[in-house]
Design goal:
By secondary structure, the chain is mainly α. Helix content is about 70%, strand content about 0%. It is built from 19 helices and no strands. The longest helix is centred in the N-terminal third of the chain and has 37 residues.
């Protein structure tokens, strides 16, 4: 299909229309508010239903499945510029339990998902791709961004259905994170296992509708340069685009040098971002780049990625894998339940529920889903869950990027068992390390018990 610039503009225009429609639906429809569905997911579902993969009302081009691969390079390229530098010693001293718990879970889900598939699914359905089990972590623990990266890598290796399956995994994961997460909140609040629970009706209106009133808006100091020279937003967008472009050309260069190995553009964009961040710090020019603006650009790219990614899902491809795919996702939900119910108690004691429900949100959906659940379970952030996770994620991010980058590569080179050994072995090693450091408590008091102990101590 020969595409013109206007064809690409039409794609962008229609997905923008759907994003606006999704925002309105989130603001006005009560049951959608109860599910905390982001506007980007609503837009993607509408695009899937109304686009070429649905009833064909919206004339998307056949390139909508390509856009997520570009947008993920933008997202990963922005990460180094927006991230603050913190020493690991400082992190370990303050949030060692949160770091070890989160890192261990991330590694384990990548490993056990692939192991489950290799031992069971690939033996029953012999024509499955060896990397089929990676769809679990790619969709659940990574969300649509990781799904786009891993799915795009599989597509380049010749497994075209991998992208649709990864996007479907991420979409189902997000829905399960909220629906099941809300059920957990209701159930464990009745059992007295929660500490700071708020009713849905008591949540701030802007959290339910997604619309922030003027008096509650925060300002971002983005005027780091004078608009007489260049608009500050243009400067930030240009920088991220340059980084993503550098990642793309490095990927193309690698392809010419090593035709049998495809290094994803997003992972190389991350490296380019690190290099540019280092240069900017050396030249003291980083003071003219605002981290909040970079995060906004990354967030905007994520919204478009999710919408395009869901709209591009091939329902026929998903249907052809429906039974093994359903079993894989069910296994993932059971694993996430084990993390929530068992491991969170071992690491966090009396505040196991607050930290566990946040973790349930991000290991089945996205960090945003975890935050939404946490705002119900801990509306005043008394458990400091999000503060600790934000700090703990700094050393986790490079590991996540390595997993996303090398998982498809190791599958392509028939090193699937080595990948299982590395991920599960590292996860066990972190757990043992956490035990030695005293971060694993091996006990869990209920919330009512902890409150009683506190009262008696007073």
């Amino acid at each position: 299909m020969n595409l013109s610039a206007w064809d690409l503009f039409v794609d962008l225009g229609f997905i923008s229309l759907l994003l606006v429609a999704g925002t309105i639906i989130r603001a006005k429809v009560r049951w959608v508010q109860n599910l905390f569905l982001p506007a980007s997911i609503i837009a993607g579902i509408l695009g899937l239903a109304l686009g070429p993969n649905g009833i064909g009302l919206i004339p998307f081009t056949d390139q909508i499945g390509t856009y997520p691969g570009i947008l993920i390079a933008v997202i990963f390229g922005a990460i180094p510029i927006a991230t603050q530098s913190v020493k690991f010693k400082e992190i370990a001293g303050r949030v060692g339990s949160m770091w070890s718990y989160s890192q261990m879970i991330m590694l384990a889900m990548w490993g056990v998902g692939l192991l489950f598939s290799l031992l069971l699914l690939n033996n029953v359905w012999g024509d499955l791709n060896l990397g089929f089990g990676l769809l679990l972590a790619a969709g659940f623990i990574g969300g649509h961004g990781t799904a786009a990266a891993v799915g795009d890598a599989f597509a380049k290796q010749g497994w075209e259905e991998g992208l649709s399956l990864a996007m479907t995994s991420a979409t189902i994961g997000v829905i399960c994170s909220i629906v099941v997460g809300l059920a957990f909140i209701k159930y464990y609040s009745k059992k007295g296992e929660t500490n700071y629970l708020a009713r849905f009706e008591d949540l701030p209106r802007e959290l339910r509708t997604g619309l922030i009133p003027p008096e509650k808006r925060t300002s971002t100091k983005m005027d780091t340069v004078s608009s007489i020279a260049v608009d500050p937003l243009v400067l930030h967008v240009a920088l991220v685009t340059i980084i993503a472009l550098g990642g793309y050309y490095l990927s193309e260069l690698g392809q010419t040098m090593l035709p049998s190995v495809t290094i994803p553009a997003f992972s190389l964009a991350f490296l380019v971002g690190l290099a540019i961040k280092g240069i900017m710090k050396k030249t003291n020019s980083d003071q003219y780049i605002n981290a909040d603006v970079m995060n906004r650009i990354s967030g905007s790219a994520t919204d478009f990625l999710v919408a395009f990614g869901i709209a591009s899902i091939s329902l026929s491809a998903v249907a052809s894998y429906i039974v093994p795919f359903a079993l894989l996702l069910l296994f993932g939900l059971l694993f996430a339940w084990f993390v929530f119910r068992v491991l969170s108690g071992k690491f966090f004691g009396p505040i196991w529920f607050e930290r566990g429900i946040f973790t349930w949100g991000w290991i089945t959906g996205t960090t945003a889903m975890g935050i939404a659940l946490l705002r119900i379970a801990d509306p005043e952030s008394k458990s400091k869950t999000l503060d600790d996770y934000a700090l703990a994620y700094i050393p986790i991010a490079p590991v996540e990027i390595l997993l996303i980058t090398f998982a498809p590569l190791m599958i392509a080179t028939s090193q699937h068992w080595l990948f299982v050994l590395i991920t599960i072995g590292a996860s066990i090693a972190i757990y043992l390390f956490a035990m030695l450091r005293g971060w694993v408590k091996n006990e869990k008091k209920s919330s009512s018990q902890s409150r009683s102990i506190e009262a008696n101590s007073k």
